[in-house]
């Protein structure tokens, strides 16, 4: 038996940590919940036009989600650099990485905007075989396509502002956007106060105007508050080929992940879009409610990216490691509360959004299935964002893509198209990989191998940190023996 000196482990500063998390998470969550509330109000205002209209807008939202996956890789990669450079107080690094990020993101936004404006018929044929829904969706896409580049630019601005401790500016932009959207929906869908009755085209017009207001508020407030990075356009493009190579080397796994997952999700949505009209309407409402869950989650995910990435960039690797483990616990706690809240109030919400009979039952079934899997799903998402902010863009990507294409997509296609299983069975198959990936992501979390700094300060501290983790693992094995 050996004599060892056991050092007393310092207690984790939960109070300060919780305050730091909430300072980032609450404004981001509020902004996302505002957006989701706006989407819900859209659905409620369109509900009098019937389930087909609600379903059509829901399928158009799936095309928007594909755009989201196209640019989100650059958001994730950009925040990796923003957070670490901000922690290292490297202004030039922040400006360079933002210039690269916004360039790629705007390319995606413009391409999707043009696709919606020029090829709406093709897009709707891809997502559903129901002619009546296709015709409504075409009207919506021909207008809402103008909003896509503006929405993408606002997201790029928000990513930079949140990472540099200016989380309230995107929140104010979101508030103004939602108010504008709701007011114009009321004026244009049914033609109040002498405005033309535009129906689904009125909802699309309101979305475009809201996007303009969002960008305007963000830019004006950033200028008034003299933000040191967002409007320094001349400094955004002072990057060289080697900067671009380093950016793409770190971001490529993230971009590949988002694009591959987006394509896989599109395939699954195509399968779901070939179910009954009641199922399509129920799915559209469910996606709106899902936004509440993601809204809660996104705040904590952003907090993880910022709080962990800043410490990695500054060389405080132990602090980053301890924070990462605890952000996951906070995230899943709030996700559970959000799911329970939606389940408790689902009946009035569904009725307000024109669901009844079969569509009501299917939507409630989707909500129950999702609530059971949400802890794993959002836990995986949070851990992946944490890894990315710390420099490990590959692990979560590899796991997600492998499970998506070897398990989830084949299962959904076989069950939905070949075996013609009930809709809820097909829907449940979309999430069968989440518990398995959660276990693998947890093992990677505790290994500490996801900490891969891009700053000199972080790289210098890495050997000592990894040695300390190895020493702790050896001590635990010795005690177990």
- Range of helix content: over 70%
Query: Over the alpha carbons, how many angstroms does the gyration radius reach?
Result: 23 Å
Oligomer: single chain
Shape: globular
Secondary-structure-derived class = mainly alpha
Distance between the termini: 11 Å
Portion in beta strands? under 5%
Largest sheet, in brief, is: none
Jot down its keywords:
single chain; 481 residues; mainly alpha; 18 helices; globular; disordered N terminus
What does this structure look like?
The protein has 481 residues and is mainly α. It contains 18 helices and no strands.
Summarize the structure.
The protein is mainly α and 481 residues long. Helices cover 82% and strands 0% of the residues. The chain is globular and about 65 Å long.
Write the layout of secondary structure elements.
Elements lengths: L13 H33 L4 H37 L3 H28 L1 H8 L3 H14 L2 H17 L4 H21 L11 H25 L8 H4 L4 H32 L4 H38 L2 H28 L1 H7 L4 H33 L5 H24 L4 H7 L4 H14 L8 H25 L1
């Amino acid at each position: 038996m050996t004599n060892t000196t056991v050092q007393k482990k310092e207690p984790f500063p939960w109070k300060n940590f919780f305050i730091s998390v909430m300072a980032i998470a609450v404004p981001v969550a509020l902004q996302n919940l505002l957006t989701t509330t706006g989407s819900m109000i859209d659905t409620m205002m369109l509900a009098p036009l019937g389930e087909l209209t609600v379903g059509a807008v829901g399928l158009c939202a799936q095309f928007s989600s594909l755009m989201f996956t196209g640019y989100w890789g650059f958001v994730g990669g950009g925040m990796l650099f923003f957070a670490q450079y901000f922690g290292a107080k490297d202004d030039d690094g922040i400006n360079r990485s933002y210039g690269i990020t916004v360039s790629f993101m705007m390319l995606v936004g413009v391409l999707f905007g043009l696709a919606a404006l020029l090829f709406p018929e093709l897009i709707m044929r891809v997502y559903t075989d129901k002619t009546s829904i296709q015709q409504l969706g075409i009207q919506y896409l021909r207008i809402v396509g103008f909003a896509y580049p503006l929405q993408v630019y606002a997201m790029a601005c928000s990513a930079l502002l949140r990472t540099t401790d200016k989380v309230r500016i995107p929140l104010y932009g979101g508030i103004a956007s939602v108010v504008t959207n709701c007011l114009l929906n009321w004026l244009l869908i049914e033609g109040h106060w002498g405005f033309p009755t535009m129906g689904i085209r009125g909802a699309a017009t309101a979305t475009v105007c809201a996007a303009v207001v969002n960008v305007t508020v963000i830019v004006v407030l950033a200028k008034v508050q003299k933000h040191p990075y967002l409007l320094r356009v001349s400094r955004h493009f002072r990057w060289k080929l080697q900067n671009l190579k380093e950016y793409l080397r770190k971001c490529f796994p993230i971009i590949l992940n988002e694009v591959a997952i987006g394509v896989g999700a599109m395939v699954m949505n195509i399968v779901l879009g070939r179910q009954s009209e009641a199922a399509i309407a129920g799915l559209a409402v469910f996606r709106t409610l899902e936004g509440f869950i993601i809204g809660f989650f996104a705040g904590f995910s952003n907090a993880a990216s910022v709080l962990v990435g800043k410490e990695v960039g500054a060389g405080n690797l132990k602090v980053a490691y301890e924070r990462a483990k605890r952000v996951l616990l906070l995230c899943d706690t709030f996700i559970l509360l959000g799911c329970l809240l939606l389940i408790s109030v689902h009946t009035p919400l569904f009725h307000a959004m024109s669901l009844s009979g079969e569509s009501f039952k299917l939507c409630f079934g989707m909500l129950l299935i999702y609530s059971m899997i949400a802890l794993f799903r959002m836990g995986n998402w949070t851990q992946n964002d944490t890894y990315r902010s710390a420099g490990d863009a590959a692990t979560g990507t590899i796991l997600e893509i492998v499970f998506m294409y070897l398990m989830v997509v084949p299962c959904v296609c076989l069950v939905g198209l070949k075996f013609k299983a009930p809709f809820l069975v097909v829907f449940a198959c979309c999430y069968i990989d989440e518990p398995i990936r959660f276990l693998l992501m947890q093992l990677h979390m505790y290994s500490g191998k996801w900490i891969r700094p891009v700053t000199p300060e972080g790289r210098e501290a890495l050997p000592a940190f990894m040695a300390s983790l190895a020493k702790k693992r050896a001590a635990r094995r010795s005690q177990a023996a």
